Amino acid sequence: MTDTGLIAKYNIPGPRYTSYPTVPYWNVPQWEADQWCELIRVSQHDDRSKRLALYIHLPYCDSLCTFCGCHKHITTNHAVEKRYIDAVLREWELLSASLDKGSLIHELHLGGGTPTFFAPEELNRLIDGIRNLFPFTPEAELSFEAHPNSTSFEHLQALHRQGFRRVSFGIQDYDQVVQKAIHRVQSFELVTACHQMAKNVGFNAISHDLVYGLPKQTLAGFQDTVQRTLELKPERISLYSYAHVPWIKGTGQRGYSESDLPEPNLKREIYELSKQLLVANGYLEIGMDHFALPDDSLAKATREKKLHRNFMGYTPNASNLLIGLGMSAISECTFGFAQNEKTTERYLQLIESDRLPITRGHHMSAMDVEIRRHILNLMCHFETELPKDTLLSRLELELQLSELVSDGLVAWDGDTIRVLPKGIPFVRNCCMAFDAYLKDQHAVKRFSMTI
Ligand code: SF4
Fold it and tell me: Which residues bind S-adenosyl-L-methionine 2 per the record (predicted)?
């Protein structure tokens, strides 16, 4: 079958698998705080789960980018910063009572929203407060997302002093027509200045996040974006597929029409051309949508088969316990998931009344645990092995994978299921064959398209 034929056949709504089960199928509508804390306690049974990954969601942004799929709160009132940081620190204090006293923080990521919306002094106060309760491991990776329009020398200096060495700049696309359509205007000159400033301060792991499939995007325009990115040679480049889900994300993604989006073949062409350029310039393709220079920690983790994936995306640090702090943040432990309240005011009110702000989540069954492992293996290493005592029905799995196998995208060899090079763009479709929850077609339609 031609590439065009494959895209027409397999470009269907499907999850990105930053979790399994995916959020629409979670089975706990409202966690009791005690139940969730108990689940965390029993999950910390081994050394790996005593090395925590911490994600802190900082939701405020000065201005709305219309393509945005994040949980954010748009405001220009910076008086909100102090109350929010107080709340996150209080949440950390409340949660820490359930953590093993020997826990260490092995990974910390500040995401958003816009972490650089906050003043450097507030970010300092946040990290000091986190460190006061549990120490970092000596090799811990501390990273943050930076908006080039609001990142100052003082931000970079403060976070570098706190031990941060990785910064991810949100770039998306340098084409001014696209920037206007997504309401996010930032020049290459500004990004270059920020990038250089970060290097001068001592950041040695810089990521640039690009997005393909955005409205008004063209092959030539995006090629130019990739070329400019290569001029700066960041250690890591994320090449995210734009997820068009206006029915979930509200008005933000309605600032343009469907006809402004590149059609699926063009979208794939943009990815493939970008990949060729990046690989020709020494980057290695990692997982589904990342590229890294050979010395980057993500490239090393891939070589050593230690690559992991969670709500933060791909990470070199596999921890069994991810604690999410802040509005909308998601936590994951061996046996389940929990998400925080998704409106800022409600999150703040709950914390201020000394209650954990958790809402819905999932309690994993043994079958969920096995399928999560296969999906993680496929998303990170493009292969997985069925254990002798698998809980899955081989017959049913064979049936679900049969078309991918006959189209030459997947090979099944003994107990090993492998995504073939031609099948890599369709890895989400392969994971869907394992997914035991995708029977509710109404819910499936809520996901973005797989290509
Ligand atoms: S893309 Fe980033 S800066 Fe823009 S609205 Fe979304 S979270 Fe805020």
Answer: 67-69, 113-114, 172, 184, 209, 243
Q: What pLDDT score was predicted for residue 94?
A: 96
Please give the distance, rounded to the nearest whole angstrom, from the Cα atom of residue 142 to the centre of ligand 1. Answer: 21
Bridge partners (DSSP) of residue 410 are 419
- In Å, how far are 99, 166, 187, 205, 322 from 51, measured between CA atoms? 11, 19, 39, 22, 9
- CA-to-CA distance for 235 and 245, rounded, in angstroms? 30
Kindly report, residue by residue over 39-98, the tens digit of the pLDDT.
999 888 877 778 999 999 999 999 999 999 899 999 999 999 999 999 999 999 999 999
Tell whether residue 114 is among the known ligand binding residues: yes
Rounded Cα gap, residues 107 and 44, in angstroms: 16
- Residues 20-31 have a mean pLDDT of 94
Q: Residue 122 has what pLDDT?
A: 98
Closest ligand 1 atom, CA of 63?
5
**Cα(312)–Cα(304) distance, integer angstroms:** 20
Spans of all domains in the chain: 31-363, 366-444
Query: Is 209 assigned to a binding site?
Result: yes
Q: What is the DSSP letter of 216?
A: T
3-state secondary structure of 89: helix
Give dist(CA 198, CA 157) in Å, integer: 8
Q: Could you identify the residue written with the tokens 């990954």?
A: 53
Determine the CATH number of domain 31-363: 3.80.30.20
Q: What is the pLDDT of residue 10?
A: 85
Q: Is the predicted pLDDT of residue 442 greater than 60, yes or no? A: no
